[in-house]
Amino acid sequence: MTEEKTLLFLYKISENVGQVAERIEKQFFNDPQSVLVNGRLILEEILKLVYEKEGQFYYENLTLQERIDKIGRLSDIDDDVIYRLHLIRKSGNKGAHNIVINALNQALVVHRNLYEIGKWYLEVFGDDVHFMAPPYQEPKPPIGTTKEEIELLVKSELEKMFQQNKDEPKEEEKETFVQTLVKRDGKENKSFLVKQLRRLEESSKEAVEGLHSFSHFKEYMHVEREIQQELLTVLEETHCKNNAQLILLCGSVGDGKSHLLSYLNVKHSNVFKYFSVHNDATESFDPTKNSLDTLADVLYEFNDEQISKSSKKLILAINLGVLNNFLESKYARHFTKLKKFILQTNVFDGNKVVQNNKDIHFNLLSFSDYHLFELTNKEPHSKYFSELLMKITARTEENPFYIAYQLDRKNLEKNYPVLVNYEWLQKKQVQEGLIQLLIRATIQYKLIISTRTLLNFIHDILVPPSLFDVGDMLTPKQIIETNILYLLFQSKDRSQVLKVIHELDPIHIRNQQLDELLIELNGTTNVLTLATKYFNDHDVITFVESIFSDSKDKQNKYIQLDEFFIRLAFFFISDLKNVFYSDVYRQYLIDLYHYNKGELQKLLPLYRNIIKIIYEWKGTPEKDYMYIEQLSKTLWMAQKVMIVPKPEQMNKRVAETLHRFTENIFVFFESNGETVKLELDYPLYELIQRLLMGYRPNKKDKEDAIKFVECIESILRANYGAKEVVFYHLSTNKHYVLNYTESFGTYEFGRKL
Predict the structure, then answer these.
(1) How many other CB atoms are found less than 10 A from the CB of residue 209?
(2) From CA 700, how far away is CA 696, in angstroms rounded?
(3) What stretch of H or E contains 117?
(4) C-alpha–C-alpha distance, residues 492 and 570, integer Å
(5) How many C-beta atoms lie closer than 10 Å to residue 365's C-beta?
(6) SS3 145
(7) By C-alpha distance, which of 391, 392, 407 is closest to 181?
(8) d(CA 6, CA 10)
(9) Model pLDDT for residues 489-518, shown as the tens digit of each residue
(10) For position 99, what pLDDT does the model report?
(11) What pairs with residue 665 in β-bridges?
């Protein structure tokens, strides 16, 4: 039996590359130093092909290092790939010109990197769109090698490794890695940190997801979510079963389905390899078929006739809209078992989290149940936002952003705006404030925040839209307008997220505490003393002093200072924390938490308030009566309408922190035997609270509160044909009643006492 060699798939690149790869596999243990030299030959051949594929001129007169750097600048190639190319190049130089002491160890490194480069090339430039590289396997000694020969080989290599000095100092090695990772690319990228932050933009190549590619950068940036562990548990439970297994991973566009599948494919291939994957958002379709035709083909082995015979294992990543369309299509009659299962999970019911999501053949997980923040009995938190911010700001040598920042600190002015902003983002108070702003944007404005839009948002609040040269002296106005707090609240045209955050700018808030702060600020002759009084942060105090200590253009400065102080207070004065969050917002979070916990008794005040406003919305002449029509300027018709709270029973949840929940509150009433549902989102909740305080709704309020209006109309329809109608003559304050006598089938009209 012949043993499969990992690098033989490189024949798919070219015959020459394949032959050298085969030579490497054969010579690996006999002559490991030659592996380094042959690795460089493969590198040169692949680099020529890349230049050709990219339509670039191949620079024969340049060194190999210069060619790699050149193609890195001319083409949109992942920095992780450039790093691997340089690593193979350097190892090849050592193999060609030196006696390499730890050749076997370095040969293993080159072998793995040749595999990664070959895999990358075929996925990006190869002709086979369905290409999938074989699993990586380290080279094994030739069949027939004795145990003694292996032990002798290992012993010899270990002795050489212990005897040698390290090839390069650690600091120099780190610097070389950084320079390939964050190399300078002209004037705009004189900052290493700016280049790294560019990777967060939505236009970056890092935004593209592929099932079989997961770069080093994406791996570093990956943050685990609750749904990841749940999906992994399902994979581990089902991969060894003999019957058909379909895992439905449902959600909406941009929620992270593709990223999660890519991560599991790379990091948990031991179980993931047993499943086929179909992603309805990214798969290419037969041009003669629409998406539903394709879906029916993909799910063929799960139809009613085939499912009991099949052993297929499939992960279907699908948007809820497409799934609903499929269940309503002509194909659904062949998938009655699947349809019944999906409907039982309540995945399309917005007021419930998914339930009963497992059976003998099917598992369903919905991203709609999992949010980027958690509800608690105090205030919401976001483990995901927090960990993602820490990935960017952590002071570790594994963090490419921090490494780039350190290099910039050596080479750039300490007040360079991007460096100042990065330092501010590292502060706990700033991170916590940002997290709460993002949660508020989600709840109050129904902003949908994906990981990609979040990363783009971080880029936009750190990197000003117009970068100054590193040597420029900035005016105080420019320093303010390139600061993270200004970029956060004054950049509404840069993205939808920043447009919403602009609406949450704390300068829009006016109350006694903030007015007193502004009076004190405008009455002081020493801004620094006031800053020291309120802000226990050296960087903040230094920043305020550097900008506002000069008395020139005092009027304009103090206008900016007012706004800047309020924003600083939002992040850095803990005693004023509650000032920036309205009582309505806090109460909504409390009611939302109780609703999702199943603690319905705590929602009784909310139900009573809504019923009160329902009557007042239409007008109520007396208790339990509601105006239903205006007959003339002074004559109104009303009827008795009984509204009783009838909350839907929900299972009480024990967990204090909720990861799965609905973002809206669903309330239910009974009127004249009919059940009426009202979906209460934050804008409607806020309007109801304002009405309770005496606010009178205008035409726009009534147009915006369409769900509330529909709820009232449903209640009136339930009471249509009431046996008693009352007429109120407002100018005379007289009431008349029209009663229906059922036994005689007649109406009686009279004065109501």
Answers:
(1) 20
(2) 11
(3) helix 103-125
(4) 19
(5) 23
(6) coil
(7) 407
(8) 9
(9) 999 999 999 999 999 999 998 888 888 888
(10) 59
(11) 680
Does the pTM surpass 0.85? The reply is no
Alpha-carbon dihedral of residues 529, 531, 535, 537, nearest 10 degrees?
-90
Q: Which residues of 58-93 are buried (b: 16+ CB within 10 A; e: fewer)?
A: eeeeeebeebbbbbbeeeebbbbbbbbbbbbbbbbe
Type of residue at 160: K
SS3 244: coil
Quick one: which of 211, 208, 227 has its CA closest to 266? 211
SS3 letters across 568-594:
HHHHHCHHHHHHHCCHHHHHHHHHHHH
Beta bridge partners of 327: none
For 171-198, letters b (16+ CB in 10 Å) and e give: eeeeeebbebbbeeeeeebbbbbbbbbb
Per-residue pLDDT reduced to its tens digit, 136-165: 888 877 666 555 655 555 555 545 444 443
- Interior/surface letters 604-626, b for 16+ CB within 10 angstroms, e for the rest: eebbeebbebbbebbebeeeebb
Classify residue 276 as exposed, middle or buried by CB count within 10 Å of its CB (0-12, 13-18, 19+): exposed
Residue 381's DSSP bridge partners are 374
Cβ atoms of 327 and 300 within 8 Å: the answer is no
- E strand segments, 358-444: 362-366, 370-375
What's the token pair of residue 271? Answer: 């179980």
Q: At what angle do helices 554-572 and 527-534 cross, to 10 degrees?
A: 10
Tokens representing 149?
A: 């020969």
Give 448's DSSP letter: -
Residues (pLDDT < 70) of the chain are: 1-4, 58-61, 72-76, 79, 97-102, 142-189, 203-214, 254, 281-289, 351, 468-472, 548-559, 741-747, 751-753
Q: Which of 618, 589, 621, 595 is nearest to 607 (CA)?
A: 595
How far the first Cα of the chain sits from its last, in Å, is 104
| Amino acid found at 726 | V
183, two tokens = 């190399």
Exposure pattern of 395-421 as b/e (b: 16+ CB <10 Å)? eeeebbbbbbbbbbbeebeeebbbbbb
Per-residue confidence (pLDDT) for residue 184, from 0 to 100:
42
Residue keyed to tokens 């042959």: 38
Among candidates 278, 325, 324, which has minimal Cα distance to 298? 278
CB 251 within 8 A of CB 260: no
For every residue of 249-294, DSSP letters joined together read: EEE-TTSSHHHHHHHHHHH-HHHHTT-EEEETTT----TTS-HHHH
Paired tokens of 583: 């009582």
Cα→Cα distances 424→411, 415, 431, 433, 489, Å: 19, 12, 9, 12, 15
3-state class percentages of the chain: helix first, strand second, coil last, to nearest 5: 55, 10, 35
Residues in the chain: 753
Residue with tokens 């004037």: 187
Name the maximum alpha-carbon separation found in the chain: 115
**Residue that has been written with the tokens 């390069």 in this structure:** 168
**Rounded distance between C-alpha atoms, residue 581 and residue 620, angstroms:** 33
What is the distance between the alpha carbons of residues 266 and 123, in angstroms, rounded to a whole number?
A: 15
Q: Return d(Cα 697, Cα 613) in angstroms, integer.
A: 11
CA 76, 80, 85, 90 dihedral sign is positive
Looking up tokens 């509800």, which residue turns up? 375
pLDDT of residue 667: 95
Contact 311, 246 (CB under 8 A): no
CA pair distance 435, 751, nearest whole angstrom:
62
Which residue carries 């009136």 as its tokens?
Answer: 716
Structure tokens at 377: 């009995």
